[in-house]
């Protein structure tokens, strides 16, 4: 946590490393900004500092039109100290409250409504609903500024049930109408019919090549493709019992220090959820300064390294099981066969993208022998089936930050999921930065240590960023081989 003086210093120097770590609110204008804002630096006496945009908004400040707080990178899961607050936040970011009540969320987390609100308020300084309201309005602001989407569609995509409610909320918080916000739109917003482009910021340095090459090697044929320096994939997202399918393209806009995400038209109503998952997949909330300070010399070679997350936890977990004890290329082949057999066909402009990864419910209804007929060994086919069943029955929930230890225990109970697979799923599927697959052969080789107890002792100094340490260790092997 930065002190007020350190924060002001970051504002004075427009230090991008602190972007998204806090917001500066200015009393004389009642506007809040990112530390990197280009407007004239406010006087120290007029500044207040808030960790979360929602706190600034609840205190009566509205977001700056120049630096656009909605584009700032988010907070890392590790910065949220309470596990319950973390889980609540994860659900809110996945738009849970659009379809369910706060009480419903508390039931999902297995706690009382009152306890959940208290824990959340203590952590974020605002209530879950206030936080969600900020998230929705910032998304609406982004859509009004960056797309030509009609105002009614913007309201729906941001989770408002009616245009009237949207207008009221916007007026109340931002003292603006949608039309006034839309006027901020730059003329360069492309009016093309083929998709909508969004931008997401990160904290530099960001090693795009590293993460793209990691994803490229593990791409699932038919579902993911890496082409011309960009990542493409097919998508299915459910919202309020409705399914949305389409595809996306993710590129690096290096000079802007941003990631650009283009979505096919059909996905715009669920763009909030999709952007949240893109942040997970590309680890955009990571704070390299905090991480590298702990990892020390290990992080020297690749200071912008990220831990690749996932877009769909079930897909990622299945891919991990298929990859047990076989080559990365072999696992991709098997994943491709699984997709061609059980996936949903979809048409996209990219010839190689033609399936949506099968849902857990689809795999849960498949016979083990059917999965096995694809060349997947009987034991692994059983594991894939059991994983799908556990998810389908609601016994297992693969969500970031949600009861990590409990989820690990449940994963290990599935026959065929050992410590390596459980830790690997925690690292990528649960975005758990402290996960560490200590039995991994690459790790053993990189550390030149075979004794797992000694390996674990060695990793103590890298807590709570051991997942980053694992990625660094793997990357040292790539260089020498
Ligand atoms: Zn600003």
Q: Explain this structure to me?
A:
The longest helix is centred in the first third of the chain and has 19 residues. The chain is globular. A hairpin with a 4-residue loop joins strand 8 and strand 9. The chain is 46% helix and 11% strand. It has three domains: 68 residues, DNA Methylphosphotriester Repair Domain (3-Layer(aba) Sandwich), CATH 3.40.10.10; 106 residues, Homeodomain-like (Arc Repressor Mutant, subunit A), CATH 1.10.10; 284 residues, DNA-3-methyladenine glycosylase AlkA, N-terminal domain (TATA-Binding Protein, 2-Layer Sandwich). The strands form three sheets. Strands 5-9-8-7-6 form a five-stranded antiparallel sheet. It has a four-stranded mixed sheet with strand order 3-1-2-4. The chain is of the alpha+beta class.
Topology:
Layout: H1 4-12, E1 23-26, E2 31-33, E3 47-50, H2 53-58, E4 62-63, H3 83-93, H4 102-109, H5 113-124, H6 128-146, H7 151-157, H8 163-174, H9 178-182, E5 196-201, H10 208-217, E6 224-227, E7 230-239, E8 242-253, E9 258-263, H11 271-281, H12 288-295, H13 313-322, H14 328-342, E10 344-345, E11 355-356, H15 360-365, H16 368-372, H17 378-392, H18 404-413, H19 419-428, H20 441-447, H21 452-459, H22 466-480
Helix pairs in contact: 3-5, 3-6, 13-14, 13-17, 13-19, 18-19, 20-22
Residues 33, 37, 39, 64, 66-67 line the site of zinc ion.
């Amino acid at each position: 946590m930065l002190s007020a003086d350190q924060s002001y210093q970051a504002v004075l120097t427009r230090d991008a490393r602190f972007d998204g770590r806090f917001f500066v609110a200015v009393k004389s204008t009642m506007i809040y900004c990112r530390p990197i804002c280009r407007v004239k630096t406010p006087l120290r006496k007029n500044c207040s500092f808030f960790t979360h945009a929602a706190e600034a908004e609840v205190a009566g400040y509205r977001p700056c039109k120049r630096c656009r707080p909605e584009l700032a990178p988010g907070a890392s899961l590790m910065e949220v100290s309470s596990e319950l607050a973390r889980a609540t936040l994860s659900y809110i970011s996945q738009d849970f409250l659009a379809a369910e009540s706060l009480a419903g969320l508390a039931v999902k987390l297995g706690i009382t409504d009152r306890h959940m609100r208290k824990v959340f308020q203590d952590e974020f300084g605002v209530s879950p609903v206030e936080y969600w309201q900020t998230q929705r309005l910032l998304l609406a602001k982004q859509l009004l500024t960056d797309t030509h989407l009609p105002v009614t569609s913007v309201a729906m995509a941001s989770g408002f049930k009616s245009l009237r409610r949207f207008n009221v909320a916007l007026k109340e918080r931002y003292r603006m109408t949608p039309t006034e916000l839309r006027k901020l739109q730059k003329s360069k917003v492309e009016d093309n019919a083929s998709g909508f482009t969004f931008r997401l910021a990160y904290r530099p340095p960001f090693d795009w090549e590293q993460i793209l090459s990691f994803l490229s090697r593990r791409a699932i044929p038919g579902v993911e493709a890496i082409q011309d320096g960009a990542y493409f994939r097919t998508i299915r997202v459910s919202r309020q019992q409705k399914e949305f399918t389409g595809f996306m393209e993710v590129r690096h806009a290096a000079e802007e220090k941003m990631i650009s995400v283009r979505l096919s038209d059909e996905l715009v109503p669920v763009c909030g959820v999709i952007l949240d998952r893109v942040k997970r997949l590309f680890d955009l909330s990571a704070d390299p300064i905090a991480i590298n300070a702990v990892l020390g010399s290990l992080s020297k070679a690749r200071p912008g390294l990220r831990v690749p997350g996932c877009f769909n936890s079930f897909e990622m977990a299945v891919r991990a099981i298929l990859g047990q004890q076989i080559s990365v290329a072999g696992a991709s082949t098997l994943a491709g066969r699984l997709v061609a057999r059980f996936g949903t066909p979809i048409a996209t402009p990219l010839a190689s993208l033609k399936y949506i990864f099968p849902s857990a419910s689809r795999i849960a209804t498949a016979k083990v022998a059917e999965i096995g007929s694809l060349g997947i060994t009987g034991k692994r086919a059983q594991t894939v089936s059991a994983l799908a069943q556990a998810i389908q029955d609601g016994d297992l929930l693969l969500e970031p930050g949600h009861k990590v230890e409990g989820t690990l225990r449940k994963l290990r109970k599935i026959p065929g999921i050992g410590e390596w697979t459980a830790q690997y799923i925690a690292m990528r599927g649960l975005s758990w930065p402290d996960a560490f697959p200590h039995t991994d052969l690459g790790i053993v080789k990189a550390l030149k240590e075979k004794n797992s107890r000694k390996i674990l002792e060695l990793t103590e100094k890298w807590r709570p960023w051991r997942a980053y340490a694992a990625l660094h260790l793997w990357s040292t092997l790539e260089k020498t081989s």
